[in-house]
Design brief:
This protein is of the alpha+beta class and about 475 residues long. It is built from 16 helices and 15 strands. The longest helix has 23 residues. It is globular, with a radius of gyration of 21 Å.
C-alpha cells in the first residue's frame, strides 16, 4: 500500500485527502519510506526533513478533518530543488560556497505552496549553481537516474527529475535556463513544463542567467503540471521580469481533442542529427496524433542556425557576471566543470553579447511567424538517450559528440525566446525513456498542455516505469 500511495499523482491524491479517505500523515510516511529505501542509491536529496514533514502533515490532517481544506495541494508531500529560498532555512544551490547560506525570506513559489498547505519533505540535489546538465555534483554526490543507476538523470534539476520518477516526492519544481526542467524530465520519463518567461515569479530563486531563467513544475502527469501552473502563475512586483498577464484554470481546460490542431515540424534543425531511437519514438507519436485528427505541417525558422551561439554567449556571460567575485576570490571552491564554464564566460566580449541579443530578436520574429501558420511545434527534447555518469560525450548514431554541445541544442531556443515548452515521455528504448518537446506561442500554455494531455492518453510508455525493486534500504 505504501508503494501504491507514493506512486499516485496530485490529481488522484487530492481527492482522497479532500474526502478524508487518506491522511496526509499516512501519505507523507509513504513518501518518506521511499526516500529511506532509495535515496542511498539515487541521491536525489541534498537534505531530508522527515520530522518537519511529519509535523506539517499532522497540521494538514487536523485542518482537513476540521473542514478547513485549502485545495488540491493541501497535505501533498513535495521536495523542491535546493535553489529556492525557504525563510530561515539553508539553501545550498548545490554549492560549497553557499553550503551554510540561510535565506531571509521565502521564494514567491515557496510562499504560494506554503499557503496551499503543501508538506515539504526536503531539498533536492542539483547541478552546482544550476550551471550544468548532469547533476554530477562534486559537493553532494552524483544524482543517479532511477531507470538505470549508471546513467545521469539530466540537469540541472536532476534531483527533481529523479525524485519524481522514483516516487520520492509526489511532484517538484525545477529551474530552467537552457533546458534544466525539460532535460531531466526527458531523461527520467516525467512531465517537465517551462512556462512563458515572466509567467511564474523567480523572486527568491538564486539566479544563473537573469534573462533566461524560468521556474516550472516537474510532475507525474500533465494534469498535475497544469494544476501547479495555475497555482503558481501570476504577476509578482518583487520579480522585475514578472509580467502582468491573465492566467487560466489550466487543469480545468485540458482536452484530449486534437482534431484540426496544426503541429509544426522544423526538420532542418530539430530533427537533424538525432539518435535513431529518439527519432523513431517522436515520429511514432506524431503518427498517432495524425490518426486523432491533427495535421502536421513543415515550418522554417532560419535563425535557429545561430541559436546555439546566442544561448552559449548569453548564459555564460550572465552567469559569469553573477559569480565574478567568487570566481576571483575563491575559484577553488567551484567544481571543475562549473569553474571552467565561468572562466569561458569571462572571455566573452560586449560585441558577442550584443550580437547574441540581436539573434534572440530574430528568433522571436521567426517563431512568431511560424505560429502564424501552426498552433504548436513538436521536437525531440534531447537528440540522445541519457549517457553514463562521468561521460563527456554522447553517442548519436555511432558518432561520439560533445555532451555540452548537444544537450541544450533543442531546449535552448525555448529559453532564448521565453516561449512555453514542455517535455513528455513518448516511449522507452533500451530501458531508457525518450522525451518529446512541445513548444507553444507566448502565454498560451494551454495549447502545450492540451497536446501533452492527448499524448498522455495514448499511453506511448505502455505503462513502463523505473524498476526500483533491486535498490537496497538505506
Amino acid at each position: 500500500m505504501t508503494q501504491e500511495l507514493a506512486a499516485k499523482s496530485i490529481g488522484e491524491l487530492s481527492l482522497l485527502l479532500r474526502n478524508k479517505h487518506l491522511s496526509p500523515v499516512e501519505l507523507t510516511d509513504a513518501v518518506l519510506a521511499n526516500v529511506e529505501a532509495y535515496n542511498g542509491e539515487i541521491n536525489a536529496y541534498i537534505s531530508v526533513e522527515a520530522e518537519k514533514a511529519r509535523t506539517m502533515a499532522t497540521v494538514a490532517e487536523q485542518e482537513i478533518q476540521s473542514g478547513n481544506y485549502r485545495g488540491a495541494l493541501h497535505g501533498i508531500p513535495m521536495a523542491l530543488k535546493d535553489i529556492l529560498y525557504f525563510k530561515d532555512e539553508k539553501a545550498t544551490m548545490g554549492s560549497k560556497i553557499h553550503e551554510d547560506f540561510i535565506a531571509g525570506f521565502d521564494a514567491t513559489v515557496v510562499a504560494k505552496l506554503k499557503a496551499a498547505g503543501t508538506v515539504f519533505t526536503g531539498k533536492l540535489n542539483m547541478h552546482e549553481y544550476a550551471w550544468g546538465a548532469t547533476t554530477t555534483n562534486p559537493h553532494y554526490g552524483a544524482c543517479r537516474n532511477p531507470w538505470d543507476l549508471k546513467k545521469i538523470p539530466g540537469g540541472s534539476s536532476g534531483g527533481s527529475g529523479a525524485a519524481v520518477a522514483a516516487n520520492m516526492t509526489i511532484a517538484s519544481l525545477g529551474t530552467d535556463t537552457g533546458g534544466s526542467i525539460r532535460i531531466p524530465a526527458a531523461s527520467c520519463g516525467i512531465i517537465g513544463l517551462k512556462p512563458t518567461h515572466g509567467r511564474i515569479s523567480k523572486f527568491g530563486c538564486f539566479p544563473l542567467s537573469w534573462s533566461l531563467d524560468h521556474i516550472g513544475p516537474m510532475t507525474k502527469t500533465v494534469f498535475d503540471a497544469a494544476l501547479l501552473l495555475e497555482m503558481l502563475a501570476g504577476y509578482d512586483p518583487k520579480d522585475p521580469t514578472s509580467l502582468n498577464r491573465p492566467t487560466k484554470n489550466y487543469s480545468h481546460e485540458l482536452t484530449e481533442d486534437v482534431k484540426g490542431l496544426v503541429i509544426g515540424i522544423e526538420e532542418s534543425y530539430f530533427f537533424h542529427n538525432v539518435d535513431h531511437r529518439v527519432n523513431e519514438a517522436v515520429r511514432h507519436a506524431l503518427q498517432q496524433l495524425e490518426k486523432l485528427g491533427a495535421r502536421i505541417e513543415p515550418v522554417r525558422i532560419p535563425s535557429l542556425a545561430q541559436a546555439e551561439f546566442a544561448e552559449l554567449v548569453t548564459i555564460t556571460t550572465e552567469a559569469s557576471a553573477i559569480h565574478h567575485d567568487n570566481l576571483v576570490k575563491q575559484p577553488e571552491k567551484f567544481g571543475d566543470d562549473v569553474r571552467f564554464l565561468l572562466e569561458i564566460g569571462e572571455l566573452m566580449s560586449g560585441v558577442d553579447y550584443v550580437q547574441a541579443q540581436q539573434i534572440r530578436r530574430k528568433l522571436d520574429l521567426d517563431f512568431a511567424a511560424a505560429f502564424e501558420e501552426v498552433d504548436v511545434l513538436v521536437t525531440p527534447t534531447l537528440p540522445f538517450l541519457a549517457p553514463e555518469i562521468g561521460s563527456s560525450t554522447v553517442d548519436i548514431n555511432g558518432q561520439s559528440l560533445s555532451f555540452l554541445d548537444e544537450v541544450i541544442r533543442f531546449t535552448g531556443p525555448g529559453n532564448l525566446t521565453g516561449l512555453p515548452a514542455l517535455s513528455i515521455p513518448c516511449g522507452v528504448h533500451d530501458g531508457l525513456p525518450v522525451g518529446l518537446q512541445i513548444i507553444g506561442p507566448a502565454f498560451q500554455e494551454e495549447k502545450v498542455l492540451n497536446l501533452a494531455f492527448a499524448l498522455e492518453k495514448l499511453d506511448l510508455m505502455q505503462g513502463k516505469k523505473p524498476n526500483l525493486s533491486h535498490l537496497t534500504v538505506n
